[in-house]
């Protein structure tokens, strides 16, 4: 795995962000950790939403404050993933969504990027003075469970959400 950095999305990465979205849509994959990128029609509105949702004072209705990052490979400046850190949890996130959501583009999977993205995000959580972080995943997503466990995740329980079983892992940051 090559070195990556987590950076805040900017207009400089607009084309790559749209390519990232397109790759997920083409493959029929779930775009976790993208702050609703899959639902946007206007990339400028998405950028504005990220700025609003970064602070408690401006967070949009029905959302929680969050920091969204691009995972960018240093060697070629390519966006290989996205990760979203929710600063606090609402009831739904406590049960099913957790503090952190992430995704890696299909063409870059199984290279260790998810594990490194989560490690870097946990470091960011420490700077936010978070003591514990909840990470959830679909029970069928073995790769995500392994990524979480490799970063210190301890399975608390499994909850039923419709027909899906969600696993809830806690990571102690102290």
From TrEMBL:
Keywords per UniProt: Transferase
Residue stretches making up the N-acetyltransferase domain: 18-174
Pfam families reported in the protein's UniProt record: Acetyltransf_3
Example GO molecular function: acyltransferase activity, transferring groups other than amino-acyl groups
PANTHER family per record: ACETYLTRANSFERASE
Name of this chain's protein: Putative acetyltransferase
Organism, as annotated: Anaerosolibacter carboniphilus
